[in-house]
């Protein structure tokens, strides 16, 4: 499970729908815990159904299609790409009369970023959902799958779910990848229900972590052929975080052993009782999953760097004692900062360690770090 | 030393200092105010059309100007990757009190991305703006003008209410209100429609790609091709500046008046100083320095008041500009500091120097010995009056010439200024003549009356300038009032005639369906369609002229509703046959088309002659009118802009209207009856002239203040006379009556000048200035009632101005008065 980036965005959308003004501070993610009356709730025991569940679930408050890719060019230089589409319901469907497409109550936000050996650029776009008599600026269709906001699209190449194609082009930068896999989807948590609270609340969550990518990136108008590995996360729910959580550190790694490792910790607010909540899962090449609990994960910050006025932990030591592994995770570049309305750090990382099960590439996400005094 | 003894005078007579300051302040206030307003408007125009704080570089709209575009065209462009674009819907709704509200509907999400930098929407972002219950963004100035507070919901004439108001400073909203596009579409029943798509700055190749990607039915309008609002609204700003200049002149008269009195009063002091060895040069320097000090203080106060005034009037100006020209200016909370602030200072300084020249020379040239002083002064006064009368005559000749030749507004305004000044300068001469005539009428045994008149003639000398200032303001006031009331009557009559149908339907309803519905309910009632479209035609002067083309419904009734002020032979018959067009007065006067010219109405049809000219009051755009058949032949695909229902006058139109609304599920405001439409037209007219009327009232106020100052000064001067009268045994009551009678007489005599000149000025405004400025002419209707009102106001101001300073005079004992005179 990954709370990912929905929190700041939700703050924007929810504050706009008539509740209190948005807490815009980086550390205030309390909005994620807001009550969700009128929305559908994620409950265990509902079997996910495909292709229907590839599409949007407007009756749930929040949802995302989250793709990250670790890529290399012909000369082995490392690149990274992030393509994300978030959907949020401003109000429960049917709770307000809708007299035109602009009043659909569905808002989409897309983030797109490229990392290359010399730099990083991030972009965002917003659009309302809503069917303008056959045209939509942003929408997600289940079959054949297509998710888009303007010309930023992630979609099935044909009638089947796989292979996928992803495209985005803001100004001089662009991305075009084909994503293939012969592995099935991975249902996270209990058959796709991922519990987030001791009381039972949670989200529906599945991943497609074994995607082989090939295509090109365009940086400042220069096109570069790339290949690599990609990871797609799908999640939807109506409620996520606890009010006393400050932010999170999240890792999704493609290990050289062919395994996939996902880890995260939710950091409590300063002064809140208890320590960080940690969770992880190791996915074997055959799709078998091994859950990692709080005690099975050790996280240690090795180095902090000042980025965008914040002290960010850009090098980590990760120890998984039950698996006998230790990884040293390091950001590819410190400047993979997403300077969007609600800024965060998201970028390509490299993992080093003893043996192929402790080495690899991946993506790291750091949220909720307040600007620091120099 | 010299300056100190000079200024000591004002310490003893602070009122005189106050009057001098008042003159300078009055000269500055409206001049500064109108200059600031104009500068602010120009700054708004200079920035071009803005959406919040971002300026689009171009607009995409339907190829047919004025027609909505399908929002799917916008979505398709978005899907092609053009992200520096944002959809806009503009609609005008009417508040329950009749105020038109121009609302811009935008998509906050698209706007945030397209405008590029988030500064455009400020730190707080859009907040609750894009979601139910939505927010209506209003500039604070506009909100005050509308009379609502933040959080209020403005009720509309349709019975609906707008979303809660949010005051948004610093976003350059100006006159317009901002609403979410979905909310505005729902409110105005225009789902799927956009007025235009705003294009924001992007790399040139992206802009080129966007232009190339436009489908055939969409047009690209570059910011550089947009009509220049500054040019459109030039007339209005010139008129405003003219009002400012008028009060400037009034203020200068008052300054001159105050200076003359203070110099005359100090004649003795000057003589003593000179006898004590002060050279003429030193005295001149001292007096100029003194004037400089007054100028500095007076200008400072004048500027401050002017800026205050400008801030108060700006929303009204914005409303007028919106209604006259569809031009929207910003209402900032603080006015721009502009280089134009130097102008009033320079003007006041130069004028004050000219003012001081005459009394200064008189003071310096006064013989050092007493002998013959009185006669010398008398001679000077007579000479001055004669010179002024000559100057006045010359100015009247200039006015007549300018009036007959005026083809441009500056020339027309120069003529008007000459007329006003000429009237003022001429004043003393007819006043003297009138008094002489009165004196001849009074039988010799009525000594007191004879004295009163003789004394009034003497009074003319010192008081003439104050009277001139008042006359100037009164002439301007009466002229403007007559002009506005004539214009209003003309508009009223014109609306009465033009509104030939009983009901007007503004919603999109199928004409056939309404006709079928009517046939069952009200046989004899007929539905007619009204068409309109925007066009750019090559004008006679060779440049493109934006204009609107409207259709005139077939039938005698409609044809007769158009009153032609110029017509070719058989104009109506030819028009009905589709063989020609009528043009609006503006197209004739300002764009230069004349009946008899031939124009091409649309491509692929032979050119047609212009057959006649009709009044089109209140329309800031030129218009062509074609018969419905001709219009439909040119543009067969146009949808009607509205429907009208005509029928026998005796039919029950009220119930019919309600039934029509119910039958077609229309909004309450979508069907308007004749009388209501007329009321709306007149309400808009009245609002358009609010600013002019406010300024007009201010000039009257200024005249009152001037009168008050001048009479106070004169009375101070006439302490000796009061003392003399008192010692002769004239009771206080009688002296009071005499005073009032005297000034009342002068006031009435002034009105005798104000009436004819006011009428001439009104004729000048109606016949020359307005046609040149706006392209509208109208017959002059004299509102006699207003003249009485004006006379009463003026007399009231006079009496008040006489009484207040006189109370002190009347109360004082003769001995005290004589003592004061001696000092």
How would you explain this protein's 3D organization?
The complex is a heterodimer of chains A (374) and B (823). In chain A, 50% of the residues are buried. Chain A has one helix at residues 6-16; strands spanning 62-72, 78-89, 106-116, 119-128, 138-141, 146-149, 152-156, 164-168, 174-180, 186-187, 193-195, 202-219, 222-237, 245-255, 260-268, 277-283, 289-292, 298-307, 310-320, 325-331, 337-338, 344-353, 360-366. Residues 1-33 of chain A have low confidence and may be disordered. In chain A, a hairpin with a 2-residue loop joins strand 6 (146-149) and strand 7 (152-156). Chain A is an all-beta fold and 374 residues long. The two termini of chain A are 34 Å apart. Chain A is globular and about 60 Å long. In chain B, helix 9 (234-265) packs parallel to helix 24 (690-717) and helix 16 (447-498) runs antiparallel to helix 27. At the A-B interface, helix 1 and strand 4 of A face helix 3, helix 4 and helix 6 of B.
The arrangement of helices and strands of chain A along the chain is HEEEEEEEEEEEEEEEEEEEEEEE
- Provide a count of the helices of chain A: 1
Beginning-to-end CA distance, first to last residue of chain A: 34 Å
What is the radius of gyration of chain A computed over CA atoms, rounded to a whole number of angstroms?
19 Å
Distance between the termini of chain B: 21 Å
List the helices and strands and how they pair.
The complex is a heterodimer of chains A (about 375) and B (about 800).
Chain A lengths: L5 H11 L45 E11 L5 E12 L16 E11 L2 E10 L9 E4 L4 E4 L2 E5 L7 E5 L5 E7 L5 E2 L5 E3 L6 E18 L2 E16 L7 E11 L4 E9 L8 E7 L5 E4 L5 E10 L2 E11 L4 E7 L5 E2 L5 E10 L6 E7 L8
Antiparallel strand pairs in A: 1-2, 1-13, 2-3, 3-4, 5-6, 6-7, 7-8, 8-9, 9-12, 10-12, 11-12, 12-13, 14-15, 14-23, 15-16, 16-17, 18-19, 19-20, 20-22, 21-22, 22-23
Chain B lengths: L1 H11 L1 H34 L10 E5 L6 E2 H9 L5 E10 L5 E7 L1 H7 L21 E3 L1 H7 L18 E3 L9 E4 H7 L5 E2 L1 E4 L4 H10 L4 E5 L6 H4 L1 H32 L1 H9 L4 H46 L16 H24 L7 H33 L3 H18 L1 H14 L5 H52 L4 E3 L5 H11 L4 E5 L1 E7 L5 E9 L3 H5 L3 E4 L3 H6 L4 E4 H5 L8 E2 L8 E7 L7 E6 H7 L7 E5 L6 H11 L7 E3 H15 L1 H28 L1 H9 L4 H43 L9 H28 L2 H9 L1
Parallel strand pairs in B: 4-7, 5-6, 14-19, 16-18
Antiparallel strand pairs in B: 1-9, 1-10, 2-8, 3-4, 3-9, 11-20, 11-21, 12-20, 13-14, 15-18, 16-19, 17-18
Helix pairs in contact in B: 1-2, 1-11, 2-9, 2-11, 2-12, 2-24, 9-12, 9-14, 9-16, 9-24, 11-12, 13-14, 14-16, 14-26, 15-16, 16-23, 16-24, 16-26, 16-27, 24-27, 25-28, 26-27
